[in-house]
Amino acid sequence: MGVPSPRLIAMLGALMAFPALSIDMYLPAFPALAQDLQATPGQVPYTLSAFFLGLALGQLLHGPLADRLGRKPPLLLGILLYVLASLGCAMAPGIEALTAWRFLQAVGGCAGMVVARAVVRDLCEPTAAARIFSWMMLVMGLAPILAPLGGGWLLELADWRAIFWFLAAFGLACLVAVTALLPETLPPAGRVPLSPGGVARVYGRLLQHRRFMAFALAGTCCSAGMFAYIAGSPHVFITLYGVPANQYGLYFGANAVGLIALSQLNRGLVTRYGVEAVLGAGITGAALLGLVLWGCAWTGLGGFWGLLVPLFGYVAMMGLISPNGMALALGSQRSHHGQASALLGTVQFTLATGSGLLVGALPHHSARPMTTLMALFGLAGLTAFTLARRTAPDADPASREGASGEESGAPAPGTPHAVAPGA
Q1: pLDDT above 90 for 374
Q2: Within 10 Å of residue 69's Cβ, how many Cβ atoms?
Q3: Cβ neighbours of residue 231 closer than 8 Å, sequence gap 6 or more
Q4: pLDDT at res. 394
Q5: Listed residue (176, 47, 30, 28) closest to 105, CA to CA
Q6: pLDDT of residue 223
Q7: With helix as H, strand as E and coil as C, how does 161-225 read?
Q8: Phi-psi bin for 414: left (phi > 0), alpha (psi -120 to 50), beta?
Q9: Rounded to whole angstroms, what are the CA distances from 80 to 25, 110, 168, 341, 377?
Q10: Maximum mean pLDDT: which of 6-15, 163-172, 320-329
Q11: Please, what sign has the CA dihedral across residues 313, 318, 321, 323?
C-alpha cells in the first residue's frame, strides 16, 4: 500500500477516538443525568463501567472477524451498531436502560479501535508503528479537549440527551467516510479461517505469550489509572470542589494538552532512544506522579491545585505510554494482528471496567479513592514493564514458530511495509 497518507492517519485516529469521545463528552452531564433519571451518584459511574465492559468484550468479537473477513466489513457493522445504540441512549427512560444501551454502544464503537490498530500493524514494524500511533494520538487527543467542552455547551443549549444525538451523528459521518475512503489492508491471502476452536487457540497462545502480555499490561495498567481519573473526576471536580459543569471541560481538556504534546515529542524520542526506553520513562513517570497524587489527596496538600498539577503530568505520560506500549505488544506478533489488537484492547478495558466499578463503589466524600487507584495502577504498570524487559523475545514457547519475524517485529510474509510520514 505504501506510506500511509495524512488522510488515512487522520481517519484511523478518528476511529481510535470513538471511546474517548463517547466517554468524555458526557462526563459534564453526570450530575444532571443523575437528577433527571433519579439515580444516585454511585449509579451513574456504572454507565461508564458498562461502556468499559462493552469495549472489553466487543473487541474479542471484532478481532477474529477482522482476521477472517478483512478490516472493513467488521468495522462497518460495528459503526452501524454504535449509531443505533447512541440513539437508544438518547431515548433511554431510566438509568438501567441507559446502562444497557451504553454497553451496546461500546460493543459497536470498539470495532474502530481494533481495526485501526490492526491496519497499522499490517503496514509497519514496531518503531514506525510507534511513530504512526503518535500521529494518530494528535487526532485522538482532540477528543478529551473538545468533547467535554462540547458536552458542556450542549448542556447549556439542551439537556444531556442531546449529547447522544450528537454521537449518533458522528458515528453516521464516520460510517460514510469509511465506506468511501478506507482501503482494505488485509489481502485475501492473509486471511485466516474462522472457527470457535481456532479463535480460542489463538487467544490462548497470546495469553501464554509472556512478552506480549507483559507489554500489554505495562501500558494498560497505567491506562486503568487514567480511567479512574475519568470516572472519578466529574464528582471530584464538580461536586467536591465546586467547578461549574460548563467549565469542567476546561480543566479536563487542559490535561489532554500534555498528552498531545508528549505524544508528538514521542516520534523523535523513539528514533533517538528506542521504543522500550521511552516507554520505560513514561511508565516510571506515571508511577511517581500517581504516588504524588495519592499523597496530596490524603494530606490535603495544595488543595485543588495540589491535585491538578500531578494529574496533568500523569495524563501527559500517556502520550509516551500508549503508542509505545501498543507498538511493542503488537510488534511481538507475526500474524493474527486483528486478534492481537483485540486482546490488547480487552485487557485495557477489563482493567478500566474494574477501575470504574471501584470508583463508583468506594466512598464519595473525598478524592482519595480516585488517587489511590491511580497510584496502585501506576505501580502495577511499572512492575509489568520490568517483567517485560526481563523477558527475551525468544523466551516464549508460543513465539518460537516464526521467531525471527516476531523478534524483529517484521510484518508477516506478503504484508506491505511502510513508515510514518516524516519519519
Answers
A1: yes
A2: 17
A3: 45, 48, 49, 355, 356, 359, 360, 370
A4: 54
A5: 47
A6: 86
A7: HHHHHHHHHHHHHHHHHHHHHCCCCCCHHHCCCCCHHHHHHHHHHHHHCHHHHHHHHHHHHHHHH
A8: left
A9: 20, 12, 9, 21, 34
A10: 163-172
A11: negative
**Cα–Cα distance, 345 to 405 (Å, whole number):** 23
Average pLDDT over residues 16-26: 86
Cα–Cα dist 211/121, whole Å: 17
Predicted TM-score (pTM) of the model is 0.69
What are the grid coordinates assigned to 25, written together? 463528552
Residue 26 pLDDT: 85
What are the distances in angstroms from CA 311 to CA 15, 20, 257, 375?
26, 17, 12, 11
Rounded mean pLDDT, 365-393: 88
Residues 419 and 13: their CA atoms lie apart, in Å, by 16
Task: Name the band, by pLDDT with cuts 50, 70 and 90, for residue 3.
Answer: low
> What distance in Å separates the CA atoms of residue 52 and residue 346, rounded to the nearest whole number?
9
CA dihedral over 292, 293, 296, 297, signed as positive or negative: negative
Q: Is the pLDDT of residue 375 over 50?
A: yes
Closest CA to 25 of 201, 191, 144: 144
What distance in Å separates the CA atoms of residue 246 and residue 148, rounded to the nearest whole number? 8
* CA diameter of the chain: 60
Cα–Cα nearest to 423, from 288, 311, 266, 289: 266
CA distance 215 to 42: 33
